[in-house]
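Final report, Chapter 2: Outcomes

The project's central promise was a pipeline that accepts a single protein chain and returns its three-dimensional structure in a standardized token representation, suitable for archiving and comparison. That pipeline is now operational. To close this chapter, we reproduce one record exactly as it appears in the project archive, with the input sequence first and the structure output second.
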Amino acid sequence: MVDVAEPRANAPEWSVSELSAALRRTVEDAYGHVRVRGEISGYRGPHGSGHAYFSLKDAGARLDAVIWKGTFQRLRLKPEEGLEVVAIGRLTTYPGKSGYQIVIEALEFAGAGAIMAMLEERKRRLAAEGLFDPARKVALPFLPQVIGVVTSPTGAVIRDILHRLADRFPRRVLVWPVRVQGETSAAEVAAAIRGFNALPQGGAIPRPDVIVVARGGGALEDLLGFSDEEVVRAAAESAIPLVAAVGHETDVTLIDFAADVRAPTPTAAAEMVVPVRSELIAAVEDLGGRLAAAPVRLLERRRADLRGLSRLLPSAENLLSVPRQRLDAASERLPRALRANAAAHRLRLVAARARLSPEALKLRLERASDRLETLDGRLKRAFTVAREQRAARLKSAGQLLDALSFKGVLSRGFALVRDAQGQPVRLAAGLTPGTALDLQFADGHVAAVTGDAVRAGSAPVPAPEPAPRRPRAARSKKQPKVEGPTLFDP
């Protein structure tokens, strides 16, 4: 049989919380302050609470890390995915996960190689967004009126720039003071670039025509503020042409790629933004001299051309010899031509006088009188015929009017009945006792009033035997039917 050792009866009993607290004290006492080197992994930016959670790893292990919100805001170096850093902090445990982690208080680059790797990764990412695209860049103004300088107001850089500008072409300079290294350097430089762009045209503070971001040389870590993503974005968004003059010629920062022009040194930047005044004056004077001499040279050349062309022209004697001979010949023919012309006109006058004799005029007058009498007779006959035609048409229209008039019907013994308003009465059904009526006969009007015996639908009162009528000629079948008001035979 195998003996199984019994558990010690005197072993202390721990609760989970007590054991976790004891382990935490042990870890924190043994590793109260550590420096850990590793690569940042799993970083996705600050949490909604403001804290940052990620891991530090190397080839064989992984360590959870946390940066509290207050610490994260003060960090000079912000965590980035894949960045190799040295994390400074304290080791502790997280009872909720039965794990341990480092609470980071500061971050440092793990050597120059880590800085270069971080800059290359940032450069690649920003270039993919098009911030370094040459199409975004604009040309510098030839002669700016106002130059904005973003730099430290106490360093040698601003003195070098001002001195160089004074030597070449004095211009008005606006300095936006910033820290050129340190934790707040990047934020101040970005704010200065955006601040210059926000100045209105014609405001109390003049808006610069060009911006120079300048700093002297330094270590790679000292220049990191000008490679900050916020600074690069501000330089790329600048509507004012921007010159980057950070460090020496061998120093490279990311703002150099986003700027419109990169200058190797701040002094070189001052030379780029303004021309040399003395050279401009000399060039203007040279152009002025050339401009003044050009009309003189042109006039001399035109005068020489005119002299050369004048030698090719024939003399006045040669030009006038032929016209002079023609004039002499014409002057010899002129008297004979005048006499011949006068004789011809005399003949035409004699012929016209023969046509204007009294006998000829009398004959033409008699012919005109005969024609006038003929036209007068034709006019009278035409007038008589037109008048007779109009009279016949008028008579015919009068006969038709008489035939169509209702008065012809009245003459045959009928009467026209009207009411008090003068409207014809067509039916007896519409009459009431006591209605005033007007009876029109062929020879006049008679007033009447309806009585009680008159009712709608009653038989008519028999009329006396009419007198024999004279026979009338039969109507033409083409005569229109006469329509008029209602007539009653009395």
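Archive annotation: The chain has twelve helices and 14 strands.
This record, like all others produced under the grant, will remain available to the consortium after the project formally closes.
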